[in-house]
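Deviation from plan, reported transparently: magnesium ion complex.
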Amino acid sequence: MQKNIAVILGDGIGPEVTQQSIKILDAVASQFNHEFNYTYCLMGADAIDKTGNPLPDETIEVCLKSDAILFGAIGHPKYDNDPSAKVRPEQGLLRLRKSLQLYANIRPITTYPALAHLSPLKSKQIEQVDFIIFRELTGGIYFGNKEVNEDHTRASDDCVYTRDEIERIAHLAFQYAQKRRKKLTLVDKANVLETSRLWRKVVQELAVQYGDVTVDFLFVDNAAMQIILNPKQFDVILTENMFGDIISDEASVITGSLGLLPSASAGNSSSLFEPIHGSYPQAAGKDIANPIGSILSAAMMLEYFGMLEEAALVRKAVDWSLSNGFVTRDIDTVNYYSTTTIGDLIKDYIDNKIPSAVNKNNIALSKSTII
Ligand code: IPM
Ligand code: MG
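Because the crystal trials were delayed, the predicted structure below was used instead.
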């Protein structure tokens, strides 16, 4: 199969982690006789520095023509503490989501038993946690009318949703629930917000078409508690843009390994795949960032292409690396390997080059990844 992939390396650690994914995709391509063509595009602080625009038109054009987009990370501290900045890196990502109608952000929250000790929660609480968040991504308060008065004493952001916007992501979430444990939880604030009452109404109506799925409803403040108190109760969580932004970050830390988590943003014509972590500017260029969030995002991309065997091999390679202690510094602060070495090892596993007894000393010295 031939696929055209738009690659946005982005800011901070984005380039170094994404380069590991490219390595892995190339290994998959040669192993399974595929051809992946990459077109590199600019977005974020990197794009502002080079063009003055956080999302050059050319990037949108390339993305629209691609089969999928692989994205690194966005954001730079020089914009974060400057409320008067005219352009911000994040505007690029928001415009890209809107232009491509990437309406559903999908974040699987998976735990790895070997890494349970890293979780801020007790091991007992996170055993068997396995849920997936569907966050609406192109509507709500993020995209409503924004105003600030002349003397900057009053500001507002409108939160707007239409039935169509709710329906399209709700269908997707119901279909996923059917393939999983058949439970869907809508997170909203229907006791206060009109938009939330519309979400509830639409989801209740659609539930009739998915009779095998049990639906329940949680207010977002309660959901924030439940995610910590009893995360294994969840299967599929469906929610609007802003609530999803907040609870998906909350959920991501319960596994203790933020650097391992991937995400997909599904659209009508193309979809975007990115690790959930941010640009982590303090680590940029140091070869210490965890590339696995990006590599597992590439695995989600392979699944999206229908390359299920290929994706399963990537996941197996990642499991192999984690269970053998081949991890970056965020996972083990004593025995750790570089971003590049982890990428090389996972690639070697895919190439079938890993002997059963691996010499960790040589890996540590970066002499060879496989002897
Ligand atoms: C995310 C991020 C973005 C968001 C930022 C970078 C605009 O936090 O993808 O969750 O708020 O959606
Ligand atoms: Mg966020």
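Residues 74, 90, 93-94, 245 surround 3-isopropylmalic acid (ligand 1) (CB under 6 Å). We consider this an acceptable substitute for the interim report.
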